[in-house]
Amino acid sequence: MDIIEYDISPHSAALGQGWRLGFLGLLHMDVFNQRLEQEHGAQVVVTTPSVPYKVRIQGEKALREYGEEEPTITNPIQWPDPQIIVETSEPVVMGTIITPDSYLGAIISLCQDRRGIQHNLRNLDQNRIIVQYKLPLNEIVVDFYDILKSVSSGYATFDYEDFGFEPSSLVKLDILFEWYMIDELSTMSIHQEQDL
After folding, report:
1. Which H/E stretch holds residue 157?
2. Is the distance from CB of 95 to CB of 140 less than 8 angstroms?
3. How far is CA 172 from CA 128, 162, 175, 187, 188, in A?
4. What pTM does this model have?
5. Which of 24, 79, 101, 138 has the highest Cβ tally under 10 A?
6. DSSP state, 95?
7. Mean pLDDT of the region 159-180
8. Contact yes or no for 61/32 (Cβ under 8 A)
9. Residue 25 has what DSSP assignment?
10. Nearest Cα to 75, choosing from 14, 6, 2, 161?
11. Angstrom distance (rounded) from CA 155 to CA 76
12. Cα separation, 173 vs 176, whole angstroms
């Protein structure tokens, strides 16, 4: 199982002292938070984990600031001004799921809800199916594995490998508290066009 990293900058004017921690899943994170609260009375603020994005930028000033035409952004706080962005890309993975055939419908729905694109589906034997989906890494880092286990009664397995970067329409989502922007709570989101 992969370690989920939650990033809080070393010090935040809004949130105080913070750390970058890795967990083996949501259950481990919940246990950690409960123990901190029960044993030490500490209130924990957990921010969304981030994945690296690539941003192609334009303009001499921007190139001097970022040092290259396509910097890799690992934290939403570093996101460039939208006016200098030419194109954004997000990391994708090729996920392989092995499941009993009775859970296939729920698993396909889960993958489609997470912007997955099906690449392969075949029978492994009389009762098991292997299905491959290309998935954005951002869609699987938090709770994908936990939900997959839930919809398959624990029987499905999941493995993935890096599949590079693909262009995507990304925007930075900022959180305001009493009109004060909390940088540490900023996250990346997919910009979706709305029909008028």
Report:
1. strand 157-167
2. yes
3. 40, 24, 10, 6, 5
4. 0.78
5. 138
6. E
7. 90
8. no
9. S
10. 6
11. 36
12. 10
CB 58 within 8 A of CB 84: yes
Does the pLDDT of residue 156 top 60, yes or no?
Answer: yes
CA atoms of 128 and 103, how far apart (whole Å): 10
CA-CA distances (angstroms) from residue 104 to 34, 38, 82, 109?
Answer: 35, 40, 40, 9
Mean pLDDT for the chain?
Answer: 86
CA–CA distance, 100 with 18 (Å, rounded to integer): 42
Asked whether 81 and 65 are in contact (CB, 8 A), the reply is: no
pLDDT mean over 136-164: 93
| Distance linking the first and last C-alpha atoms of the chain | 43
Pinpoint the alpha helices (H) of the chain.
26-40, 60-66, 104-113, 144-151
Task: Please write the tens of the pLDDT for every residue from 78-110.
Answer: 899 999 999 999 999 999 999 999 999 999 999
CA distance readout (Å), 141 to 67, 119, 145, 155, 196: 29, 20, 8, 20, 33
The pLDDT of residue 23 is 72
